Each structure stands twice: as C-alpha cells, then as structure tokens.
Amino acid sequence: MRKAFGPLLLVVAIMFVVAPFLIANAPYESTMGLIQKIFYYHVPSWFAMYLAIAVCGGASAVYLFKGTPIADAYATAGAEVAVVFGLCGLVTGPLWGRVAWGVWWQWDVRLTTALLLELIFIAYLMVRKFGGPGAEKLAAATALFGTATAPFVYKSVDIWRTVHPNTNVIPTLKPSMGGPFAFSSLAFLLLCTLLLTARVHLAKRQMTVDEMYLAYEDQS
User: What distance in Å separates the CA atoms of residue 109 and residue 100, rounded to the nearest whole number?
Assistant: First the structure.
C-alpha cells in the first residue's frame, strides 16, 4: 500500500478536481433545483463515514478480544476518520435542509440518530485521551456500540415516517445523475482509504518510537 499511496493520492486529487464539473453538468432536480447538488457531496461523505466505522468496529473487536496493538491503531484511525466525514455530513445536511425544508435542523429520526452516532465516536476519542489506564478497552467497547448503531441509523428512514428521503432514492437516480454521484462516491471512499492508511502508518511510527523510548529507559 505504501508504494501505491502516491499514485492513488494523485488519482483522488484528479477525481476531486473533475467531480465539480460532472456535478455542474448534471441536471437539476425538479423540485429543489440547484441546492440539490449538495447531494453529490452530502451522501458520499456518509458513505465514507460508514466505511471508517466498519474499520473501527472490526479492529476494535479484534483488539478487545486479542489485545493486538496494530488493531488498536486501526480502530483509532477509523474513529478519527469517521468523525471527520460525519462532520462533513452534519454540515452539508443543514445547508441543504435550510432550502429544502425551510429550517436548518429538524429533530427528525435520521438527523437525530446521525448526530448521536457522531457523538458516540467523539466519545470514543475522548475516552481514549482522558480515560486513563485501561481506556483502550473501554473505547473499543464504545466503538462496537457505535458500529452496531450505524445500520440502524442508515435504515431509520425506511422504518419511520421522516422528512429525510429514504434509501430507495439512490437506486432510482437517472444515469445523468447516477454517473456523477457514483464518481463522487468513489472519490470520497478512496479519500477515506487514504486517510485511514496515513493515520495507521503514523500510529505504527509512534509505536516504534515508544518501543525505542522504553528500551532506552530500560538501559538507563
């Protein structure tokens, strides 16, 4: 992955340059007009968040039961990246909703549960930083709770009546909209992968430095 990181970074950069042109040429949605184009960034940011959550949850499960340090590194990276993309979704959503619904925020089931999901992974990071000895295990349990919550958040719009569009919107997109949306989604997912890779690499370097420091302390 280290050798592929540079070329992949270049590909992602090009995709993010091209994406606005594809989105600009996509047709307007019949009822919302121009503001609907936030959709091409709003939904892919959530897709990227779910990918990061899956990495965090899987790695947390491994760390919780096997105590593997590298799994803890992947879990931390997943949580940090999930918070970043979750924040993107929580910012772009109200920008869209202000025009579409006439208000910045509705205590709608999808919006509320998405906010709670973001707070769960912020709590994960806070527990790791301020929880003291053994905080890593407690944080891993928090990540598993958040990961189990994520599918519920995604399907909430199909279970309850909500002002938020349900999940069958994406499969019904016309090719003129579906193409730019798929392109943007791939760009976000690749960016998420790059951020996860970079963060895990940084964690590995930190572990190496810590081991060298402890070895030096033992020799002193």
Answer: 17
Question: Which structure tokens are listed for 215?
Answer: 């070895």
Total domains in the chain come to 1
Q: List, in sequence order, the alpha helices (H) in 101-174.
A: 109-130, 135-159
Q: Is 134 left (phi over 0), alpha (psi -120 to 50) or beta?
A: left
Please list the residues that pair with 29 across neighbouring strands. 33
Asked whether residue 50 is assigned to any structural domain, the reply reads yes
In-domain check, residue 90: yes
Q: What phi and psi, each to the nearest 5 degrees, are found at residue 16?
A: -75, -20
33 φ, ψ to 5°?
70, -140
Per-residue pLDDT tens for 126-148?
998 888 888 889 999 999 999 99
> Is 143 a member of any domain?
yes
